[in-house]
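COURSE: Structural Biology Practicum
ASSIGNMENT: Worksheet 4, Part C
STUDENT ID: 0417
INSTRUCTIONS: Below are two proteins. For each, the amino acid sequence is given first, followed by its structure token string. Answer the questions at the end about the second protein only.

PROTEIN I
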Amino acid sequence: MSKRRQPPAPPRTKAEALARVAQLERQVRRLARQLASSARRADDAVRESAEGQRALTGALEQQTATAEVLRVIARARPLTFVPCST
């Protein structure tokens, strides 16, 4: 069970209130930067995933085509080779 932080005591003076506001504004800017950074990383991950998926799709298509060619070769009649003398 995690402990919850106690809320700060209400400011007693205008200066304390302004200082608290400034502190909260800095915290909001820091969190906004973290959020933007996380969003960029998520975008990068989505892009890399799409690139990987395209590469896998291409590899599967190539493998399927190769398998089809090998099936055709396997069904073909054997070639008769005639020796030639030189």
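PROTEIN II
(use this one for the questions)
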Amino acid sequence: MDAAIARDFTRDRWQDLATAVDEAAMNAVVHAGGGQAIVRASDDTMQVWITDTGAGIAVQSLHRATLERGYTTAGSLGQASGSCSNPPTASGSSRAPPAPPW
């Protein structure tokens, strides 16, 4: 989070970022056995992408998994905080992180 603090993110903003990254990374570890993080930053903006090669979420469940708090497809408690700002992509997606505008 040093990079966020160096970019003058407010305490609430960098804590939200840390929570979202932690949640996404833990999901990659628990549900896919690991993954990869890509961080891109400019003077005042940061992007963090967590990718993995897990089975993903079936297209027919994607709307519930992204919009319904506590919904899970994994048989776990589904207690995610909902702090990830971008919904996951459907199974089989090969979407790459977008290039930052800077």
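ANSWER KEY EXCERPT:
Q1: The beta strands are 36-41, 46-51.
Q2: The first helix runs from residue 2 to 6.
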